[in-house]
Design goal:
The complex is a heterodimer of chains A (about 110) and B (about 120).
Chain A lengths: L3 E3 L4 E4 L4 E7 L6 E7 L5 E6 L5 E3 L2 E6 L4 E6 L8 E8 L8 E2 L3 E6 L1
Parallel strand pairs in A: 2-11
Antiparallel strand pairs in A: 1-3, 3-8, 4-5, 4-9, 6-7, 7-8, 9-10, 9-11
Chain B lengths: L3 E4 L2 E4 L5 E7 L5 E8 L3 E10 L2 E4 L7 E6 L2 E6 L8 E11 L5 E6 L3 E5 L1
The chains are: A mainly beta (about 110), B mainly beta (about 120).
Chain lengths: ~110, ~120
């Protein structure tokens, strides 16, 4: 099992749609969880962190299920500007030595 | 803004030539990283540094060396470039975000696109 696995994209959705991305991780000792956003030919940027209690930021909601080792990202009322690749990121422990990135899920929001 | 600058941003070189990519940061961050990103593989860690002259290998370190003689600069060197090293290289710094329960968060530079012919 790969360390971090994400839904294979691409997701093609119309404006206004709700879309959900999933991510699973293999290391049960993982400490921190994030979603990053990467626009075409740009660097990844932190979108939001993920907690067991859930984390909401406007139209975006992230959720962590430690028992199932599963992370999700929900985007409501999709905008054209949400088109990007979304990366699931897991920190194995408290060490700053390594973060594990998923391969990313590409989202394309159409008019 | 973490003040990360990568240079060069684009480079085309020939197989067998040496290449050095530079990452410069202005905010005295202790941890710095070099990643490469390739289609189908995502971001993979090459090397990282946890202080001046303190470095360690990542997942795909073969063919690469790094140096950190000053806090602000982290250099990635390809001693003899190969076509398999054609990639986009990202430098990153790590910082603890108290507002995120003390989690370590990466901030990336804009990337260096390397083509080895």
């Amino acid at each position: 099992r790969k360390e971090v696995e994400q839904d294979p994209g691409p997701f093609n959705v119309p404006e206004g749609a709700t879309v959900a991305f999933n991510c699973t991780y293999s290391n049960s000792a993982s400490q921190s969880f994030f979603w990053y956003r990467q626009d075409c030919r740009k660097e990844p940027k932190l979108l939001m962190s993920v907690y067991s209690s859930g984390n909401e930021d406007g139209r975006f909601t992230a959720q962590l299920n430690r028992a199932s080792q599963y992370i999700s990202l929900l985007i409501r009322d999709s905008k054209l500007s949400d088109s990007a690749t979304y990366l699931c990121v897991v920190t194995p422990g408290r060490s700053q030595g390594n973060l594990i990135f998923g391969k990313g899920t590409k989202l394309s929001v159409k008019p | 803004d973490a003040g990360i600058t990568q240079s060069p941003r684009h480079k085309v070189t020939e197989t067998g030539t040496p290449v050095t990519l530079r990452c410069h940061q202005t905010e005295n961050h202790r941890y710095m990283y070099w990643y490469r990103q390739d289609p189908g593989h995502g971001l993979r860690l090459i090397h990282y540094s946890y202080g001046v002259k303190d470095t360690d290998k990542g997942e795909v370190s073969d063919g690469y060396s790094v140096s950190r003689s000053k806090t602000e600069d982290f250099l990635l060197t390809l001693e003899s470039a190969t076509s398999s090293q054609t990639s986009v290289y990202f430098c990153a710094i790590s910082e603890v975000r108290a507002q995120l329960s003390g989690a370590n968060v990466l901030t990336f530079g804009a990337g260096s696109r390397l083509t080895v012919l």
